[in-house]
Please model this.
Amino acid sequence: MDNSQPIIEAVERLSAPTIIGELTQDNLALAIVPAGKKIENLQPFLDKLRDAPRRIEAAACVTTVTSFIDYVDRFKAPDTAIFATDDASSPSLLAIVDFHGQGDAAAPRFGVHTVRYGFPLSDQITAWSAISGHALAHSDFATFLADRQFDIANPPLDWMQVDPATIKLLTHLLNLGDDAGQIDDTSPDEPPADDDDRYIPRSALYKLRQIRFGSAQRLIQLARTVEVSVNDRATEGYNPKTGERTVIFTQEHQTSDKDGRKVIVPDAFLLRAPVFEGETSQLVPVRLQYRKKGGALCWFMTLVEWRRVVRFAVKAEADRVHEATGLPVYYGQPKA
Model:
């Protein structure tokens, strides 16, 4: 008598796949297969039989803000949302085309159709940010300025002729603001200093005019010819009323050209360059400083408030995207 038939039937029963769900093209989702009773997702196989996907799944990356706007305009829906990241280390724009609905009865969406634009720093700003705040030997300072002189903008002859948006940007970056009122912080019996300007009407624009901005030509000449001499001086003071004695030590730097004529070192200068590649050029302030260490002269060129510069540039482009697409722009990330 053959006793193997029950074994064969049991193996056939156990090895047959178990289907979970209705066996149709749209609903078949899972099957338990014999090998270790592992669950396999059959949806990818069914998707290949469709005439079109059930939904758009795409993660596009574009290289200009204009392309970002064009892409969003092509696919946008009423619920599409845009997120802006203004972090100086990785600024970007992200649009989620199939974002969740709005209001109390908002319907959830998959959020798998996106387009991203990562702001690429321009070649000009990349070069200046690489040396920003670093000590440069005089020869390196002169060489760098010679190579990048065409990035430097001449200061305007009349700041009143500069557009208000640029004035607002520069005064913000340089922390210049209008005074709330007149300042009088001296005591009644204290005589005013010779250079007292407490009664001169001041504003952000007035303060901006007081900054000595250097032109490209002046900076190049400075790099080629300047010499710095250091003089130490001690000043002694005595108050017979109280018997107080004061001794003040000062160190004076004298800058001159090769012929001994006095040279004024500018406080700062302006770059005219796009912050991001392919975008609109703007004025970027750079602080100029020098130090005499031993017999060597070191120069420092520092981009002023660099993180603010990036935030302003991102905001300008985000505002353009908002105006062009009519969609809301949120600052942050859609997911933590």
Summary: The mean pLDDT is 79. The chain is about 30% helix and 30% strand. The CA atoms of residues 88 and 310 lie 6 Å apart.
